[in-house]
Design a protein that fits this description.
four-stranded antiparallel β-sheet, 2 domains
């Protein structure tokens, strides 16, 4: 019994160690001196504003979304983007028989097209392509209609 337990623990530790070696490591990617991005956020440790260009790949084959992020000085900024929805066309749906208005019995109406399905997609990969100093970013909307 003791030998099986020791063997089982040994196998478990080897499997866990192998999984740790094979797992991707989360490492910030430095795009410029003092500017790095990891996942869906960028950190700027400089006194300049940087324009960071990234590409987000969305799920379900909807493609890639280019993203421009202005990383403010001495701050961490999240990427702002939306993966598009995917529209799946409606399917033909057979209609139930209806009473024949011209005589006895029932008739089968033709099939109709069902409604399309909207599927929400989500990000699966982000690639940060580069960062350049841009101390004149576009103005953010103020929220007023004036």
């Amino acid at each position: 019994m003791r030998q099986r337990l020791t063997f089982g623990l040994g196998v478990a530790s080897v499997v866990m160690a192998a999984a740790g070696v094979l797992a991707p490591q989360a490492v910030a990617q430095e795009l410029a001196p003092g500017v790095s991005c990891e996942g869906y956020s960028c950190r700027n440790d400089t006194d300049d504003t940087y324009r960071v260009e990234s590409v987000v790949t969305c799920s379900d084959g909807v493609g890639q979304v280019p993203v421009v992020t202005y990383a403010r000085p001495r701050a961490t900024t999240d990427l702002v983007f939306v993966c598009p929805t995917k529209t799946i066309p409606g399917q033909l749906q057979q209609q139930p028989p209806v009473l024949n208005p011209n005589g006895p019995g029932y008739v089968n109406p033709p099939p109709t097209m069902g409604p399309p399905e909207m599927k929400i997609t989500h990000p699966v990969l982000v690639e940060h392509r580069g960062a350049v100093v841009d101390n004149n970013p576009p103005q953010e909307p103020s929220g007023s209609a004036n």
